[in-house]
Amino acid sequence: MASNVADPVLLTPPPDETSAPPRVARSSVVPTWVIALTPAFVAALATAVHHGMPTLQELPPTWLESVPAWKHPYPLLLDAVILASVIMAIAQTLGESVRAWVAHHAPLIAGATLLTCLWNLITAKLAWLPQPYFPGPDEVLGALIEDRSMLAISTWHSLRLLACGYLTGVLVGVSVGILIGWFRPARYWGMPALKFIGPVPATALVPLAMMLSQRSFICAALLIAFAVSFPVTMLTNSGIANVRLSYLDVARTLGAGRLYLIFRVALPAALPNIFVGLFIGLLVSFLTLVVAEGVGVKAGLGWYLVWQKGYADYAKVYASIVIISVFCSSIMTLLFKTRDYVLKWQKGVIKW
After folding, report:
1. Domains and their CATH numbers in the chain
2. Which helix or strand (DSSP H or E) is residue 59 part of?
3. Which among 215, 205, 207 is positioned nearest to 296, based on CA atoms?
4. Angle (nearest 5°) at CA 59 between 153 and 150
5. Is the distance from CB of 33 to CB of 94 less than 8 angstroms?
6. How far apart are the C-alpha atoms of 81 and 91, rounded to whole Å?
7. Average pLDDT of adjacent 10-residue blocks, the chain of 352 residues
C-alpha cells in the first residue's frame, strides 16, 4: 500500500532564483605587494650566494678579470631584478589591471631568478659541473656582452636565411597543397610522392643541396624550404579537401567560377589548417637552421655556435643558445599575433 507520508524532498521549497548565492568562506589571499617583492627576495638571496660563497671553479681568463666584482653582469642583473620588483610593488597600487599583471608575472621572474641562482651554485660556487663545459651565468652574460656585435650580425644573417627559406617553403607548400586538395588527378599522383619524399629529413639532403648550387646561402635556403614545405603542403591539402560542400554549393548557385571557389571560398575556409602547418613548418625551420648554416655559410647563429664550440669557448656557445631561444620565440610570437589578427573569430583557440 502506498504511503501517505510526503517525500521530504518534495516538501523542500524551490530555491529562489532571485536570491543571492550563498557566501563561501574565502581563504586568505597573499597581498599583491608581497607577490611583487618576491623577485627582490630571491635576487637578494642569489646576491648573497654569489658574493658570500667562494668560487671553486677554475675560471678561464676573460675581460671580467679587470672589472670589480660588483660590476660583473650577473650581480648587475640581480640588482636590476630587485629594482624592477620594487617598481612592481609600487605600480600595483595604480589599478586592478596593473595588479593582475604584477600578480601573474612576479612569480615567473622570481622562478627564473631562482634558477639562475641554482645554476650559479652548482657551477661556479660548488664546481659540481666542470669547466669549460658548464660555465656559470656570470661567464655567459659576459660572453654576451663581449661578442654583442658579432652576435647581432649573426642574428641578422640567420633572420635573412630563415626568411628566404621559410617563405619559399610556405609558397611551395600552399601552392602544392591547393593543387592536391582541389584537383583529383593532382591528388592521385601527388599524395604518393609526398608520402615518399616528405618524411625524408632535410639534414639528409645536404649533399644534394650542395650539388644543386655552389652558393652556400642558396643551399641552406633550399634545405629550410624543403623542411617547411612538407607540413605546410599536408595541412593545406587537408584544409582544402575538407571544406564544407554547402559553402561550395552556395557559391556555385550564385555563379562563382573555379578560381573564385578556390581563392575566395576554399582557401579562406582552410586558413585554420594552413596556420597549423605554418606553425609546424616554423618549428622545423628552426631545427634545420643550425644544420643549414653548416653547409658553408660564413655567418649566422648556427655558424657562430659551431665556430665557438671548435674553440671550446662554451660560455659563448651558451650565449648563442640564449640568443637563438629569444630569436625563435620572438618569431613564433609574431606568427601567433598574425594568426589572431587574420582569424579573429578563432582568437585564443591556440595560445602561445
Report:
1. 32-146 (no CATH), 148-346 (1.10.3720.10)
2. none
3. 215
4. 5
5. no
6. 15
7. 44 49 51 92 94 87 80 93 95 90 94 95 91 90 91 92 93 94 89 86 75 75 90 92 84 83 86 91 88 77 87 89 90 88 72 61
Per-residue confidence (pLDDT) for residue 352, from 0 to 100:
59
* Among 106, 107, 112, 121, residue whose Cα is nearest residue 48: 121
C-alpha cell at 107: 612569480
The cell for 266 is 576554399
Which residues make Cβ contacts (< 8 Å) with residue 98, sequence separation at least 6?
A: 91, 92
The closest of 162, 146, 120 to 324, measured between CA atoms, is 162
Closest CA to 102 of 114, 116, 90, 118: 90
Place of cell 671553479: 57
pLDDT at 14: 52
pLDDT of residue 10: 44
Instruction: Give the closest residue to 295 by CA, choosing from 207, 202, 204.
Output: 207
pLDDT at 347: 67
Tell me how far apart the alpha carbons of residues 246 and 34 are, in angstroms, rounded to a whole number. Answer: 57
